[in-house]
């Protein structure tokens, strides 16, 4: 005789899982602050549904994740506009729900049907959602979550390109100097990814927006904040010295304005900043096609520059650094001996 009165529950289909998530997110709209208990219950339902989603996408210890189900979940997420819902409800969601969401986010973005990434295509049809993620840096409660979601999106060239070209990109120059250190650091990580992940996208952007970009980037290089100066100088080397950006670098080193900025950083109180500045300064000096204005600045300041360079050391034995430094010193000495530089 069997005493089993309960049949094992049937696993939910991807459609049912996504519908449950969508319905629980939509239910948050009907709750008010006055209905605290109702809101708490609704948030618990959302948390339970995202925990189920994570189990399906990553396995739950007993069952392995199913690749076909993952694709179907991504398709349903887009079809039911849950991607949009999640972004707009992020500020309401609890910590555990956000944690599960971040885990699932990267998995969902990677799902493909043929050659098409389902969620990426969805973003390409709703680019404004990327703007929504960017402005979340103004909300410190969800800034780090949005930053993680953004960096996953930026792994795809079309989404990175949109952000670079959008009006919201300029907000990063504010976000990287926010008073909250964790948020500012996270914003800089996203900013760095935008300028280094996709060489051809970045090269095209810098070519089209050279003047506007470096006008605002100069503010970071001359910031009173040590961390901002150091990070932005290092990042400048990272993207300026990439081969696809060689034409940008050649244009940059012709400008006296930026030579003066780098020379100022060369005498910064921080040894780390001095060393980073040297690696850009040497390109100005070694350029065989230096314009007259650059030669004049180097000649006028040759004594101070030579003094700085003689004292400059990375702090450990670095033969290549010393060789480069000697070459730069020689070049500056040659310039100091030139007559009638000013026409």
User: Quick check: average pLDDT?
Assistant: 91
Q: What is the CATH homology-level superfamily of the largest domain?
A: Leucine-rich Repeat Variant
**By helix and strand content, what is the structural category?**
mainly alpha
Termini Cα gap: 108 Å
What name does the CATH topology of the largest domain carry? Answer: Leucine-rich Repeat Variant
Extended strand count: 2
SSE topology string: HHHHHEEHHHHHHHHHHHHHHH
How many separate domains make up the residues? 3
Instruction: Give the strand order, joined by hyphens, for the main sheet.
Output: 1-2
Family: Belongs to the Mo25 family.
InterPro entries: ARM-like, ARM-type_fold, Mo25
Protein name: Mo25 family protein
Quickly describe the structure.
By secondary structure, the protein is mainly α. The chain is about 70% helix and about 0% strand.
Based on the model shown, name its key terms.
mainly alpha, two-stranded antiparallel ribbon, elongated, Mo25
Could you walk me through the main structural features you see in this protein, from its secondary elements to its overall organization?
By secondary structure, this protein is mainly alpha-helical. It has 3 domains: 10-113, no CATH class; 128-253, Leucine-rich Repeat Variant (Alpha Horseshoe); 262-268 and 279-342. Helix content is 69%, strand content 1%. The protein has 20 helices and 2 strands. The chain has helices at 14-27, 36-58, 67-79, 82-89, 95-109, 118-125, 128-135, 143-154, 157-165, 172-175, 181-196, 199-208, 210-221, 226-240, 246-252, 256-266, 271-286, 292-300, 302-311, 319-336, and strands at residues 112-113, 116-117. Strands 1-2 form a two-stranded antiparallel ribbon. Helix 2 packs parallel to helix 5 (95-109), helix 14 (226-240) packs parallel to helix 17 and helix 18 crosses helix 20. The longest helix has 23 residues, at 36-58. The protein is elongated and about 85 Å long. The N and C termini lie far apart (108 Å). The mean pLDDT is 91.
């Amino acid at each position: 005789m069997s005493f089993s009165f309960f049949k094992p529950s049937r696993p939910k289909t991807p459609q049912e899982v996504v519908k449950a998530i969508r319905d629980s997110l939509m239910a948050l709209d009907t709750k008010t602050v006055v209905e605290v208990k109702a809101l708490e219950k609704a948030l618990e339902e959302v948390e339970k549904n995202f925990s189920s989603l994570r189990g399906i996408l990553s396995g739950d210890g007993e069952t392995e994740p199913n690749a076909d189900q993952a694709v179907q979940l991504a398709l349903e997420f887009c079809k039911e506009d849950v991607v949009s819902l999640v972004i707009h409800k992020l500020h309401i969601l609890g910590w555990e729900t956000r944690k599960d969401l971040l885990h699932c986010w990267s998995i969902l973005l990677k799902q493909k049907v043929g050659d098409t990434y389902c969620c990426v295509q969805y973003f390409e049809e709703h680019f404004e959602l990327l703007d929504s993620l960017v402005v979340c840096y103004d909300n410190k409660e969800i800034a780090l979550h949005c930053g993680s979601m953004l960096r996953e999106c930026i792994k795809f060239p079309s989404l990175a390109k949109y952000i670079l070209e959008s009006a919201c990109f300029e907000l990063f120059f504010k976000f990287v100097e926010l008073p909250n250190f964790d948020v500012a650091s996270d914003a800089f990580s996203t900013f760095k990814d935008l300028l280094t992940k996709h060489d051809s996208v970045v090269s095209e952007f810098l070519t089209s927006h050279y003047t506007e970009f470096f006008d605002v980037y100069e503010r970071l290089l001359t910031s009173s904040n040590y961390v901002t100066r150091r990070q932005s100088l290092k990042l400048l080397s990272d993207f300026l010295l990439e081969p696809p950006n060689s034409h940008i670098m050649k244009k940059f080193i012709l400008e006296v304005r930026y030579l003066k900025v780098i020379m100022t950083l060369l005498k910064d109180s921080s040894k780390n900043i001095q060393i980073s500045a040297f690696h850009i300064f040497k390109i100005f000096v070694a350029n065989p096609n230096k314009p007259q204005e650059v030669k004049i600045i180097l000649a006028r300041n040759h004594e101070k520059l030579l003094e700085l360079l003689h004292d400059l050391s990375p702090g450990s034995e670095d033969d290549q650094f010393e060789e480069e430094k000697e070459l730069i010193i020689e070049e500056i000495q040659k310039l100091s001996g030139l007559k009638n530089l000013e026409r």
